């Protein structure tokens, strides 16, 4: 699968490979940028899958992380204080 290919590729890289250029969608990218783009692309798809699963589950959905409205309590429990808003 995709993760096996990604791990095999990463494990095969040597320090001198990091300065090389590879082609991605017809454009040259450094190896570190190509890896970053690959992970970002994968994250996009994971988010899409989670979103569809959440819609499908409806009221039966179990939050994967901190429940909505629970950030302040989580921060107090783990950091000793409430976090600051990102807005």
Quick description:
The chain is mostly helical and 87 residues long. The chain contains 3 helices and 2 strands. The model has no long low-confidence stretch (mean pLDDT 88).
Tell me about this structure:
This protein has 87 residues and is mainly α. Helix content is 54%, strand content 9%. The chain is built from 3 helices and 2 strands, in the order αββαα. It has helices at 2-12, 31-57, 71-79; strands at residues 21-24, 27-30. It has a two-stranded antiparallel ribbon with strand order 1-2. A hairpin with a 2-residue loop joins strand 1 (21-24) and strand 2 (27-30). The radius of gyration is 19 Å and the shape is elongated. The chain starts with a helix and ends in an 8-residue tail after the last helix. The mean pLDDT is 88.
List keywords for this structure.
3 helices, mainly alpha
């Amino acid at each position: 699968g995709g993760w096996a290919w990604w791990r095999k590729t990463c494990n095969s890289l040597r320090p001198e490979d990091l300065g090389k250029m590879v082609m991605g969608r017809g454009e040259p990218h450094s190896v570190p940028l190509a890896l970053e783009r690959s992970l970002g692309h994968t994250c996009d798809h994971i988010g899409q899958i989670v979103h569809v699963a959440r819609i499908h589950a409806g009221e039966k959905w179990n939050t994967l992380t901190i429940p909505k409205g629970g950030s302040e309590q989580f921060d107090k429990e783990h950091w000793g204080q409430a976090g600051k808003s990102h807005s």
